[in-house]
Amino acid sequence: KQEVTQIPAALSVPEGENLVLNCSFTDSAIYNLQWFRQDPGKGLTSLLLIQSSQREQTSGRLNASLDKSSGRSTLYIAASQPGDSATYLCAVSLYNFNKFYFGSGTKLNVKP
Amino acid sequence: NADVMQNPRHLVRRRGQEARLRCSPMKGHSHVYWYRQLPEEGLKFMVYLQKENIIDESGMPKERFSAEFPKEGPSILRIQQVVRGDSAAYFCASSPAGTAGPNQPQHFGDGTRLSIL
Q1: With a cut of 50, which residues of chain B have pLDDT below it?
Q2: Which residues in chain B have Cβ-Cβ distances shorter than 8 Å to A51?
């Protein structure tokens, strides 16, 4: 059974800092890994999707890496802004399965 | 994400009543997934449906919960005789094919917040 863990559970940083969010998963036979952003009372917004054969994906100030063999992914946010404040969720899907297994998220607060 | 439409956004029910949650997938998507999110937790998979078929219901509670995705109309998640523990946010996602492939991530709706009094 796939278990997804996100560390830290919460993070508070001053504006402008670079930061790293961590995600680990127990079953390395993943199809892909996706990072989402969730704002309070809202749905999920897809940030980055990494295929199992890829090592990283980049979008603007965001960079996500994937190390399948060690069961880890990191989301790097450069030059953080107050607008980045949200909960960040990591999710993996397994080969031949169509559902995502989610971590509990990291709640990020970027202080002005 | 308004592309996957869920309604109602908020639903209040008393214990013992029925709750019906609706999800209209993105245009062109024929696969629907339901997830439940308890407070301060991640999303937990409930059920995966294609038109008129339940493909995977391994995350559905054995009793009181059912889901359908008819040939016409939205997908429905139905909870009978609701209890306080059913209070949660229920999210729907859709995709155009059976696998969340590299160019086909699941798209999520804004969810239905269910509160049981």
Answers
A1: 1, 100-102
A2: 102
